[in-house]
């Protein structure tokens, strides 16, 4: 298993006392840290194996502002649109979400907390490729799980596996928040990444201009997503995507997912479970029901 490839680069963006405390805590655990959360005048924390570890650290407003500047390459104004939507795009799969406070006129007045989700690359089951490809035909597949279980890791593996082999497919990846791309998952692949596009817009552009043989996107579920996916469905381009849900029943209670199900967009729904480093899958195949 590989993780923490960019940990020191991430810690360099944080207040020095926060970085030192986090390093000390990481040395105590055998499991990867999936999240670092800094809060203004409230306890900072780490998430390890889906458990929260409270750190002896309360960041000052000044430290939060300094971290924000580092995450924005010194120019928060350039990221004002995404900050107002609760995130700051980063590189190599790092997810940065923020908790903004809006002031008069609707502009962001301050940031009260910052969350950094670290990309962890767990070993995936040998049969994962076969779950999505049958005799060189890509099976339209939707992976689902609660947050933090590994949907993005699964998609990264499949992006690399499907578009980097003797029988590689041309893949378009709608990476709205730069969370799917890493150098490892994209190296030597026939993959086109659409960064910064909302899923609906990105799917339409990919189908119209890039001639993909498969489209990947993470965390679908909005009305706009469903409409664009249905439009792409008519072109015959298969989609591999993910969505938040803790069960198949809960997944189908989401109106836009139910709409995609009714139109037969996905042939296979795969629930993800992870115990420590081991993945397990619950497979629902609509073609066999």
Notes on the structure:
The protein has helices at 7-11, 16-26, 61-71, 80-84, 128-132, 151-163, 183-186, 199-209, 223-233, 248-253, 255-262; strands spanning 2-3, 33-39, 43-48, 51-58, 95-102, 108-117, 120-121, 133-134, 137-138, 141-145, 171-175, 191-195, 214-217, 239-244, 268-275, 278-285. It is an alpha/beta fold. The radius of gyration is 20 Å and the shape is globular. Helices cover 31% and strands 30% of the residues. The protein has eleven helices and 16 strands.
Overall average pLDDT? 88
Helix content: 25-40%
Radius of gyration, CA atoms, in whole angstroms:
20 Å
Note the beta-strand portion: 25-35%
Unreliable runs: none
Name the quaternary structure: single chain
One letter per element, helices H and strands E, the order comes to EHHEEEHHEEEHEEEHEHEHEHEHHEE
Which class best fits the helix and strand makeup? alpha/beta
Query: End-to-end span in angstroms?
Result: 36 Å
The general outline is globular
Number of distinct beta strands: 16
Largest sheet: 7 strands, mixed
| Count of runs of 4 or more consecutive helical residues | 11
The largest sheet has its strands arranged as: 12-11-13-14-10-15-16
Task: Tag the structure with descriptive keywords.
289 residues, 11 helices, seven-stranded mixed β-sheet
Give a concise summary.
This protein is of the alpha/beta class and 289 residues long. Helix content is 31%, strand content 30%.
Q: What's the layout of helices and strands?
A:
Layout: E1 2-3, H1 7-11, H2 16-26, E2 33-39, E3 43-48, E4 51-58, H3 61-71, H4 80-84, E5 95-102, E6 108-117, E7 120-121, H5 128-132, E8 133-134, E9 137-138, E10 141-145, H6 151-163, E11 171-175, H7 183-186, E12 191-195, H8 199-209, E13 214-217, H9 223-233, E14 239-244, H10 248-253, H11 255-262, E15 268-275, E16 278-285
Parallel strand pairs: 10-14, 10-15, 11-12, 11-13, 13-14
Antiparallel strand pairs: 1-7, 2-3, 2-6, 3-4, 5-6, 8-9, 15-16
């Amino acid at each position: 298993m590989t993780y923490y490839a960019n940990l020191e680069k991430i810690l360099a963006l944080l207040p020095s006392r926060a970085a030192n405390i986090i390093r000390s805590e990481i040395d105590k655990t055998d499991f990867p840290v999936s999240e670092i959360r800094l809060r203004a005048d409230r306890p900072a924390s780490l998430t390890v194996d889906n458990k929260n570890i409270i750190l002896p650290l309360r960041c000052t407003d000044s430290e939060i502002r300094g971290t924000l500047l580092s995450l924005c390459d010194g120019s928060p104004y350039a990221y004002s649109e995404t900050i107002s939507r609760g995130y700051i795009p980063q590189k190599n799969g790092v997810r940065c979400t923020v908790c903004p406070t809006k002031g008069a006129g609707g502009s962001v007045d301050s940031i009260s907390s910052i969350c950094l989700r670290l990309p962890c690359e767990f070993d995936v089951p040998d049969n994962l490729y076969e779950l999505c490809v049958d005799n060189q035909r890509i099976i339209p597949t939707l992976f689902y799980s609660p947050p933090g279980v590994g949907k993005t890791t699964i998609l990264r593996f499949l992006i690399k596996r499907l578009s980097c082999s003797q029988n590689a497919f041309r893949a378009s990846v709608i990476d709205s928040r730069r969370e799917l791309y890493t150098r490892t998952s994209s190296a030597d692949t026939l993959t086109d990444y659409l960064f910064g596009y909302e899923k609906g817009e990105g799917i339409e552009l990919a189908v119209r201009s890039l001639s993909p043989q498969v489209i990947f996107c993470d965390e679908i579920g909005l009305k706009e997503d469903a409409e664009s996916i249905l439009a792409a469905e008519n072109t015959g381009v298969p989609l591999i995507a993910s969505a938040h849900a803790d069960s198949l029943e809960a997944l189908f209670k989401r109106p836009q997912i139910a709409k995609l199900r009714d139109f037969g967009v996905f042939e296979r729904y795969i629930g993800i479970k992870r115990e420590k480093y081991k993945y397990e899958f619950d497979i629902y195949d609509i073609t066999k029901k």
